[in-house]
Design goal:
This protein is α+β, with helices and mostly antiparallel strands. The protein is built from 3 helices and 7 strands, in the order βααββββββα. The longest helix has 31 residues.
């Protein structure tokens, strides 16, 4: 099944890339997705090409009960976003792969970071979600697509809070204004 999700970020493309490559931000968005275990690895830099790899263990509460036997008591998700170097306007493209360990489910596709106006950027994920389980593939794909959409909506919320924290006053380097 085709899955396309667009996140709207209230910042320019260069700042959005800095955000996406910031380890503290990535840890925060993974935690916000409900992960009870996580690992984050970032290689490269936002000034050039960079890759963000996350691994997270999630509860299966978003998976319909009758499909949980296919994934067990937790979902182990590995996500890799490989971003190419930016164009002069800060836009960039890349690839994304999401795999669920122990379940025959995989999302592979393209990513795009696109300036959409002054201080506005979109991040688009567009790919094919495949489950290779006879008879239940469609139901598993639908459930997984819902979980991915929910995680990306949470990510958008975390990004907006992170950006507004930096815009609200002097930042401490982690997206938060210093405490008095």
């Amino acid at each position: 099944m085709r899955l396309s999700v667009t996140l709207d970020l209230p910042t320019d493309a260069h700042a959005a890339a800095l955000l996406l490559a910031d380890p503290e931000y990535v840890h925060q968005k993974v935690r916000a997705s409900g992960a009870f275990e996580q690992h984050v690895d970032i290689t490269g830099s936002a000034a050039d090409a960079f890759t963000v790899t996350t691994r997270r263990a999630l509860p299966t509460d978003q998976i319909p009960a009758h499909l949980r036997s296919f994934v067990g008591s937790q979902i182990d998700v590995r996500q890799v976003e490989a971003w190419e170097a930016p164009a002069p306007d800060g836009s960039r493209v890349g690839t994304v792969v999401v795999e669920i360990a122990g379940a025959p489910v995989r999302l592979s596709g393209r990513t795009a970071l696109t300036p959409t106006g002054t201080g506005a950027t979109t991040v688009t994920y567009d790919g094919e979600l495949r489950a290779s389980v006879p008879l239940f593939a469609s139901a598993i794909e639908q459930a997984t697509a819902g979980a991915i959409r929910s995680a990306l909506e949470v990510e958008q919320g975390v990004a907006r809070e992170w950006i507004s924290g930096r815009a609200g006053g002097p930042a401490d380097g982690h997206g938060q204004a210093p405490q008095p």
